[in-house]
Amino acid sequence: MNRPAPVEISYDGMRFLITHNPTNATLCRFIEELKKYGVTTLVRVCDATYDKAPIEKEGIQVLGSCPGCTCSP
Q1: Side-chain half-sphere exposure of 44, counting CA atoms within 13 A
Q2: Is the pLDDT of residue 72 over 50?
Q3: Cβ distance 22 to 50 under 8 Å?
Q4: Cα distance between residue 30 and residue 62, in whole Å
Q5: What is the DSSP code (8-state) at residue 42?
Q6: CA nearest 21: which of 3, 39, 41?
Q7: pLDDT of residue 35
Q8: Contact 35, 15 (CB under 8 A)
Q9: What's this model's pTM, rounded to 2 decimal places?
């Protein structure tokens, strides 16, 4: 499945990367993209479709802001 390219937005000294929601099958490529953009914190805004452990293993903090998430940004 083709996914849209990530979009980077800068505002007032902050950077945001808008991406698709990966699956466990596409997680390796997703992590590569996150590292390419220097992502240090990932905020989920939809239901989790992937295991966050591989992302955290790469030193990227994973937070949730969707209903039912147990952590908050």
Answers
A1: 23
A2: no
A3: yes
A4: 14
A5: E
A6: 3
A7: 95
A8: no
A9: 0.79
